[in-house]
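Lab notes, practical 5.
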Amino acid sequence: MKKKFVFAVQGEGRGHLTQAIATYELLTEQGHEVAAVLIGSSTRREIPGFVRQRIKCPVLTYSSPNFVTDKENKSIKLGKTLWKTLAQWKSYRNSMQLIRTTIASLQPDLLLNFYEPLVGACSLLKPLPVKTISIAHQFLYLHPEFEFPEDSPVKEKWAIQQYTRLTAARADAMLALSFYPMARPLFKNIQVCPPLLRREVARQELFEGDYILVYLLNSGYMQEVINWHKNHPQVQVHCFTDSGTVKGKWQYHENLYFHSLDDQKFLRYMANAKGLVTTAGFESVCEAMYMGKPVLMVPVQGHFEQWCNARDAHKAGAGIYADSFQLNTLLEYIPRYRSTAKSFRIWQEETEEILLNTFARVLKEPLQKNAAPVVPLPHLLTGQQLGHS
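Output from the prediction step:
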């Protein structure tokens, strides 16, 4: 039976956005309707253009809490983030009213919340009149089998768990996206689920390239990449960033290129890369694991969530982590890298079934499932490279 969905998405970075796109495509292919996508944004970041290109329904943006960074747009300032959130509370109240009005107008069967805190805040103040499922990697922090790194600060652990609970307040279920399966996949209302990867990830033809791919969450790290490259000009580097100074493609040096965020282009470059350097966001690391590309993870300073991601992904075999963008660390690691792509792909193949079963459990009725064509896994070739735009 056809169902109507509304999404709410935290617009920080690209991870939650690409997860929403993957879910949108899955549901619409199954004949369901996504009536609207609500995206929480801030003045610090623009919603990437590829989101509106891929999602063919009304996309509504509103003001939502976001991290405050230092003047260099590198490290996160938690104290200033809290004060800014309190100072802008009136604006956030208007955003919550938009969420309520949209749900009341569209009357969806299910609201999918991709870690948007204002949905949780709405629910705490007054329950929303719709079944809600919250989806994010961070819900693993509430699962008893997840192990925080041994040297995790107690206050940081407590804070991220409380914030995560807030985003899912009164949710009927939580989907905890994970690099790997767990012995107890369902704990209370937390369902462990593989990553939500777009179909294009599996469709990429893989090559062993001769360049390093870099993804920067905060554009302030561009200078670190430039400084490193000045001492290693022979290494070809392609860097994707949300910096407003980069429009399309910018050639800084004959072997150093900067690109604005583009989901399709980013995947093509990853499929041909020697390895990936990233600020330890969940989604880009999962894409690299699927393709068998070694990863160097450099968590944003003060970003405890990314600090945990880097260590959890290392445990899962994704690669290594460091405190700075010294790309030679990755180059030295690559000969030792042992791909876990095969086991990761097997785990990821369970995504659709777990997702639809969770929706059905919350709705208390099965969702129709149309047969989808089988997409062959990519084949790793050597000594070749695709051309790039």
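Observations recorded by the TA: Confidence is low (pLDDT under 50) at residues 73-77, 371-389. Residues 4 and 33 are 5 Å apart (CA to CA).
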